[in-house]
Design a protein that fits this description.
heterodimer, A: alpha/beta, TIM Barrel, 9 helices, globular, B: alpha/beta, 6-stranded parallel sheet, 3-stranded parallel sheet, 10 helices
């Protein structure tokens, strides 16, 4: 089995393709919606937009519980509304789940603190988008150093370092020594040596497979693991074991609270 | 399998696996790649491309059954006609590699933006296939029946070194070459999905237009969609080694929902026809 920590529900058409391939690959997809059917993805989504995105994710997860793990999309700028939305989603869904944060605000901003407290309480992994584009990030986009600050600020939360900052050398150096960070290999081109560089800096226990599908193909992103010069045991941890461990911890908490 | 787009040599900004011929052959063997079309990676950056072409010729002579050379020429640099003659007459050149964006064909002309005037992308717009020297080179390619490999981009430009902000070749520029020389067979290398579909729709001569899939890394179902758009005869397997994992292009074809005959065409049949391999 494979866990993909970074899947977007862009359209029904693309989702059908993802589900078919996931079936063949025996893959579980941590899936978020940052757009609605036929819409683009606004950087600063409204309350109504976020709620509608999460309804869409919920419907998909309920329809395909064997393939889809919902990751609730939040805009931290919404303050208490975002916290309430997350509590509502967590209490309304039984099963593995997580949180997706994108570009509305940098992850190290104190406005994110309330959401992080809930994530810590429910042991929800957080997929935080990060980037280090050579021509410059968006003003509210989380950079590699921002992600490092975020992880240090919230030591009780486990983060998927989305895209590993895009620039893998930047991402790898920013994650050095962080116990609560797992590097998401997904979303950029299958640059040779990509996964080996991450493993060399943070260890195979801190790297996970993600694709950024449907914009990216599973093939191109799995190539970063299948094609890496790593041991079979290391690849197994990246593709499955590291994420399974997180969800086991989440399930322990859920069982204890019943 | 035949790899239609690969390089041998070192990249200045990162140590890459399988850069040297012996390592590459082991990798090719592991993946089932019998032959690869290769250019010298250093020739992305060298001024005197004959140096890199000579090195490539020496490598290919050692492994003539495994490597098919594509020699690199920069029509914007003095003496390119001499380099071309050497490659044709002494090396038996059949395939020509172009890097219009890195080589800046119009760089020595007076009518191009100065670096300070091109924010973000200092090298932007300093090449053009309508440049008289580029036109002359394409004319020579037609005369000698060379397959022309246009490198649209070698790496993801978003994460390039901060001193190497080189944007990809635009599809409008690539279309100028394809449309202007219908007698030349063009293999467009290193184009992403949207660039492939854009160029295919922009080009009004399509019989001579081919693409390889090394940087076609999405969306999901990319190979299926390209086969549906262009037919299966115009897409080839290409790895872009050592810049990319070769497994990306290989798995993209393996995962495609097309029949076995189509996959065979993509993996080898189309390349055999194009390169006479």
């Amino acid at each position: 089995m494979i866990y993909d920590v970074h899947v977007h529900f862009r359209s029904e058409h693309m989702m059908r393709r993802l589900l078919a391939q996931a079936e063949r690959l025996d893959m579980l997809m941590c899936t978020n919606s940052i757009n609605l059917e036929g819409s683009s993805s606004p950087n600063f989504p409204s309350r109504e937009f976020v709620t509608a995105c999460n309804e869409r994710t919920l419907g998909l997860a309920r329809q395909h519980p064997e393939r889809v793990i919902p990751f609730w999309y939040l805009n931290p700028v919404h303050g208490q509304f975002a916290c309430d939305e997350l509590e509502h989603r967590v209490k309304g869904y039984r099963g593995r789940q997580g949180v997706k944060l994108w570009e509305a605000i940098r992850g190290n901003n104190p406005q994110v603190d309330g959401i992080m407290q809930i994530c810590a309480e429910y042991r929800l992994p957080v997929l935080q988008h990060t980037f280090a584009e050579v021509t410059g990030n968006l003003p509210t986009e989380t950079s590699g150093p921002d992600m490092r600050e975020m992880a240090l600020r919230h030591p009780d939360v486990t983060f998927f370092f989305g895209h590993a900052a895009g620039d893998i050398e930047v991402g790898a150096k920013c994650a050095l020594g962080l116990p609560n960070v797992l590097m998401d290999v997904g979303g950029n081109e299958a640059t040779n040596g990509y996964t080996e560089i991450l493993v060399r800096h943070v260890g195979a226990d801190h790297v996970v497979y993600g694709s950024d599908a449907s914009g990216r193909s599973f093939a191109s992103q799995l190539a970063k693991v299948f094609g890496a010069d790593l041991s079979p045991a290391e690849k197994e941890r990246i593709l499955f074991g590291n994420v399974q461990r997180l969800f086991d911890r989440q399930q322990e908490r859920d069982s204890a609270s019943i | 399998m035949i790899d239609a787009n690969a390089f041998l040599g070192e990249w200045p900004f990162r140590r890459l696996p399988y850069a040297q011929p012996e390592d590459r052959l082991r990798k090719m063997d592991a993946l089932g790649i019998e032959k690869a079309v290769v250019s010298r990676l250093e020739n992305v950056f060298y001024k005197d491309l004959l140096v890199g072409n000579e090195e490539l010729h020496a490598i290919v002579r050692r492994y003539p059954d495994r490597f098919i050379p594509a020699y690199t020429i920069n029509p914007g640099f003095p003496g390119w006609e001499h380099d071309l003659e050497v490659c044709i007459n002494d090396f038996g050149m059949r395939n020509l590699r172009l890097h219009p964006n890195y080589h800046q064909y119009s760089r020595l002309k007076g009518n191009v933006p100065r670096m300070v005037e091109a924010r973000g992308y200092p090298n932007y717009q300093q090449y053009h296939f309508l440049d008289d020297q580029a036109q002359a080179l394409l004319g020579k390619a037609e005369e000698h029946d060379l397959v022309v490999l246009i490198s649209i981009g070698v790496e993801d430009p978003r994460f390039a070194h901060w001193l190497m902000k080189v944007p990809s070749v635009t599809m409008i520029d690539a279309a100028e070459a394809v449309n202007g020389f219908p007698g030349v067979r063009f293999l467009v290398c290193g184009a992403v999905f949207s660039e492939v579909t854009s160029l295919w729709s922009t080009a009004y001569h399509q019989d001579n237009l081919y693409f390889e899939n090394s940087r076609v890394q999405g969306p999901i179902g990319d190979v299926d969609d390209l086969c549906a758009l262009m037919g299966a005869d115009h897409l080839l397997f290409g790895s872009n080694l050592p810049i990319n994992y070769a497994e990306s292009a290989k798995l993209s074809i393996e995962y495609a929902e097309v029949d076995a005959a189509v996959k065979q065409a993509l993996f080898s049949g189309n390349a055999e026809r194009l390169f006479g391999a």
